[in-house]
Design the sequence.
């Protein structure tokens, strides 16, 4: 719907002031202490600008400008070949108690970062304990013993604030992590706080109760959010009820009373051992000084060996239905199409990474180009291979205007099919490879970013210098490689379709896709 | 610590340029601030500045549709743009040796975007923007909170009365003529700041900038803001609005007008906001989440806005069964209580702000954006370097005085969402 022609012309307003062009050149330098030194200033020529009203159709620009040495605008500036990237290589150590420590250099930067990663996460919890890993993670910093003093939950927060430290804890499907981000001079002290909350958390009964109630609150909110519903229903469909990968991290019931202090302390005792963890420290100080700080904080940590890996869950036979979590009247449908994918250690890491960039891992990907830039059905369409310790889900996702739901599902499946059936054109493949290879340096720009990249390598048992071969590995991927992994991992019969949206509105059109019965289901 | 250096230039056509070299990572952040945002939109065209921002990616004279994204991604760069109340920014971070590519792309659309505009592209991006509104707001619980708050906090004649995303009707009403007029009025070099931060040689950069941007003609002076931007800091009343909605939990939002970003009292507002709502030792968290256990979470922050008055917003999400009035009372009590603050609270708030500041300048893209911001608001990019000192200079008395004067009971908007099932 657009305005009929001949309707009001827009006036963007009337200017009343006269511009005074700033024409001074000033150079200034700030050094760490906050002192600004102003170097020489000089004045160049002066250009005045007039005022006046502006209405549509009138070109207000003046033509009187100094001549500049112009470029030929029709020529795209040369981009040159892809350059390699020299990733930082950590110093690896093992403390006497078996804790692996990676020290990652970061140069002269303001912030430092440290992360303790404890293996297991939600993977080691039984079905009836869904949500436990999250509860444990959230309770770590709600009371702990620091330097021999028992600090309450509030006192831990106050201590973190005093240091200006951003203290974070969390659980994923494969790990529980705790991290601190703080200015470099306070990194050693922050390591002490990190050790306190991970090695000696209190888990007091009142805090267990309070944080558990909080988790129930988060569950209640999440089960109302279309994105959350779509994501977790897809997981449930792919992995089934017995596999931790198929259950929400928050839990799958609002009755979490089973998760009591005993189960929290049991989880902590079993998993939080030096041999079950790895510590990443990103700092500018000497390696010796950092290591000494690590020893002071984590050196007296004792415990049994690493917890055993959980037994693999029973295989789950997925049906072929299209699953719809009903959100009556929803203006958009949240679509998730996925399959069980790969683990991080997959030998197909490079071709899959390039495949994903092509399909839905960049703005110029196939999914985004079709669904957003061509058809305007969505604000964005993406895909990702979540690479866990075990094979995680491949997920293609988008939120589309409700009437376009069936069309979007068909489009996504068609684009996946094309990557299986056709060879990617050279120019498109080169662009995807260049993007994937060249975006690597940005992931190492921050201390926290470096820490996270290294934690990921350590978690999956990959070598500390893995990123040295990254660019080379990406550039070596061929069009046949891409088609090969698309065929191996994106089998149409393996793809599940899940939608959170208005069932009544979308079910009829979805039925005409002949992908299976359309069933309505409740939240996971 | 960090060395922050910044060389300033102004081209003959009025384009302000900041060059901030930093060789530590082999990337370059290019950032443009145009001095136009939702505040410039007249009635009937809300959301237009944002829709126009989308159009800026649809090509220009020498860049076909999609090519802007394709070329930057081919170079391994990230790129995006955002529209805000006071400004619209465009930015890309590219491997350092692709600086000229970014400059060429930005200059081509600053100077010559109109030849590439078509009705088809406008209709396509109109659909994209409408889906953005649905995704961000319409399909989210509590999704209309800022629309409601802004309407209550700012009078109808104020530029901040309407949201940046605008209304569906107004988005539908936009025409190609509007695009043309908007571009010619606001997308002119004398209304823009260009900042480059990262691994580059300033001498090479300024030459490239003059060659790519120098040929863009200066535009006329940008018109005044529509409506009445000047409003008193105190609204003079407490306004309450209750909304029965399909939400699972009750939630209470409180907003107050505060001094603008350029006012010297703004840092006091920032520190007050920290003490009130940031972190798990903050007033709201201690009282509502830890002690009274009426809320499952609290959030609060200040907006860095420059027109008339800015705003501070905080909210608390209650547990099921908590009476909305109880949640309201608890939140407002903490606002009242901020008139008495312990020095340790101020010190801790400053320590947190310091870490956050360093996080905000860690990446070249973010640093470039802040340098553009400080040029836009203060005509002084290196003022950024003094921000930590300014925060440290805020005293406990300042915070108490601010709470007493500005966060007073007659300067609040209270918006309460009541779950439909509980109503």
Sequence:
């Amino acid at each position: 719907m657009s305005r009929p022609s001949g309707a009001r012309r827009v006036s963007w307003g009337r200017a009343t002031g006269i511009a005074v062009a700033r024409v001074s050149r000033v150079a200034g330098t700030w050094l760490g202490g906050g002192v600004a030194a102003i170097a020489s200033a000089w004045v160049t020529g002066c250009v005045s600008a007039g005022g006046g009203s502006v209405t549509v159709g009138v070109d207000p620009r003046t033509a009187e400008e100094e001549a500049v040495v112009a470029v030929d605008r029709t020529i795209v500036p040369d981009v040159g070949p892809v350059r390699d990237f020299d990733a930082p290589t950590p110093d690896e150590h093992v403390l006497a108690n078996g804790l692996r420590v990676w020290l990652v250099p970061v140069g002269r930067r303001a912030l430092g970062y440290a992360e303790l990663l404890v293996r297991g996460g939600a993977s080691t919890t039984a079905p009836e304990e869904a949500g436990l890993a999250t509860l444990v993670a959230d309770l770590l910093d709600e009371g702990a013993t620091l330097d021999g003093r028992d600090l309450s939950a509030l006192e831990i927060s106050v201590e973190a604030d005093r240091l200006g430290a951003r203290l974070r804890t969390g659980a994923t499907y494969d790990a529980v992590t705790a991290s601190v981000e703080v200015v470099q001079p306070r990194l050693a002290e922050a390591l002490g706080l990190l050790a306190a909350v991970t090695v000696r958390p209190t888990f007091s009964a009142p805090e267990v109760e309070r944080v558990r109630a909080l988790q129930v609150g988060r569950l209640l909110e999440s089960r109302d959010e279309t994105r959350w519903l779509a994501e977790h229903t897809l997981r449930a469909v792919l992995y089934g009820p017995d596999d931790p990968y198929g259950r929400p991290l928050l839990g799958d019931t609002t009755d979490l009373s089973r998760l009591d202090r005993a189960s929290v302390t049991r989880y902590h005792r079993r998993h939080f051992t030096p041999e079950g963890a790895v510590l990443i420290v990103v700092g500018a100080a000497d390696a010796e000084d950092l290591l000494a700080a690590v020893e002071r904080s984590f050196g007296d940590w004792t415990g049994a060996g690493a917890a055993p890996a959980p037994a693999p869950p029973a295989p789950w036979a997925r049906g072929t239905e299209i699953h719809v979590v009903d959100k009556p009247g929803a203006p958009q449908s949240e679509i998730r199409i996925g399959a069980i994918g790969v683990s991080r250690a997959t030998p197909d890491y490079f071709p899959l990474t390039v495949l994903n960039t092509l399909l839905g891992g960049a703005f110029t990907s196939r999914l985004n180009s079709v669904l957003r830039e061509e058809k305007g059905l969505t604000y964005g369409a993406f895909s990702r291979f979540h690479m866990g310790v075990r094979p995680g889900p491949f997920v293609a996702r988008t939120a589309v205007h409700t009437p376009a739901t069936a069309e979007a599902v068909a489009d996504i499946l068609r684009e996946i099919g094309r990557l299986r059936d056709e060879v990617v054109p050279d120019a498109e493949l080169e662009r995807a490879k260049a993007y994937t290879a060249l975006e690597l340096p940005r992931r190492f720009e921050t201390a926290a970013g470096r820490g996270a990249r290294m934690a990921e390598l350590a978690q999956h048992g990959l070598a500390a210098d893995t990123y040295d071969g990254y660019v080379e590995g990406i550039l070596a991927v061929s069009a046949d490689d891409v088609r090969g992994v698309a065929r191996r991992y994106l089998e149409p019969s393996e793809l599940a379709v899940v939608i959170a949206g208005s069932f009544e509105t979308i079910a009829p059109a979805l039925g005409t896709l002949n992908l299976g019965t359309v069933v309505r289901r409740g939240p996971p | 610590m960090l060395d922050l250096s910044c060389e300033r230039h102004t081209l003959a056509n009025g384009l302000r340029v900041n060059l901030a070299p930093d060789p530590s990572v082999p990337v370059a952040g290019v950032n443009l601030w145009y001095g136009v945002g939702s505040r410039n939109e007249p009635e009937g065209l809300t959301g237009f500045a944002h829709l126009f921002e989308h159009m800026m990616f649809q090509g220009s004279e020498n860049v076909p549709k999609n090519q802007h994204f394709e070329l930057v991604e081919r170079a391994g760069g990230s790129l995006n743009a955002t529209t805000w109340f006071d400004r619209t920014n465009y930015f890309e971070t590219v491997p350092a040796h692709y600086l000229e590519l970014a400059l060429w792309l930005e200059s081509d659309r600053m100077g010559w975007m109109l030849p590439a505009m078509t009705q088809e592209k406008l209709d396509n991006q109109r659909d994209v923007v409408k889906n953005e509104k649905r995704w961000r707001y319409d399909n989210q619980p509590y999704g209309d909170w800022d629309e409601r708050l802004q309407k209550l906090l700012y009078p109808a004649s104020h530029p901040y009365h309407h949201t940046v995303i605008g209304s569906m009707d107004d988005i539908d009403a936009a025409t190609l003529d509007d695009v043309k007029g908007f571009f010619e009025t606001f997308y002119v070099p004398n209304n823009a700041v260009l900042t480059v931060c990262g691994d580059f040689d300033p001498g090479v950069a300024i030459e490239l900038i003059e060659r790519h941007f120098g040929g863009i003609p200066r535009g006329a002076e940008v018109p005044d803001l529509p409506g009445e931007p000047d409003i008193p800091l105190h609204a003079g009343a407490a306004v309450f609005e209750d909304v029965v909605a399909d939400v699972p939990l009750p939630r209470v939002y409180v907003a107050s007008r505060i001094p603008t970003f350029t006012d010297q009292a703004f840092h006091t507002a920032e520190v007050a906001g920290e003490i009130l709502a940031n972190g798990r030792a903050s007033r709201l968290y201690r009282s509502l989440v830890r002690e009274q256990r009426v809320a499952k979470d609290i959030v609060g922050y200040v907006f860095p806005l420059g027109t008339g008055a800015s705003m501070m917003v905080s909210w608390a999400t209650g547990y099921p069964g908590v009476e909305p009035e109880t949640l309201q009372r608890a939140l407002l009590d903490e606002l009242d209580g901020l008139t008495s603050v312990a020095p340790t609270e101020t010190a801790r708030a400053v320590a947190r702000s310091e870490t956050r500041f360093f996080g905000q300048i860690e990446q070249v893209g973010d640093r470039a954006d802040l340098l553009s911001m400080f040029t836009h608001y203060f005509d002084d990019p290196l003022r950024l370097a003094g921000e930590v000192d300014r925060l440290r200079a805020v005293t406990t008395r300042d915070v108490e005085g601010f709470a007493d004067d500005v966060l007073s009971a007659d300067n609040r908007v209270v918006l309460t969402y009541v779950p439909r099932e509980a109503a």
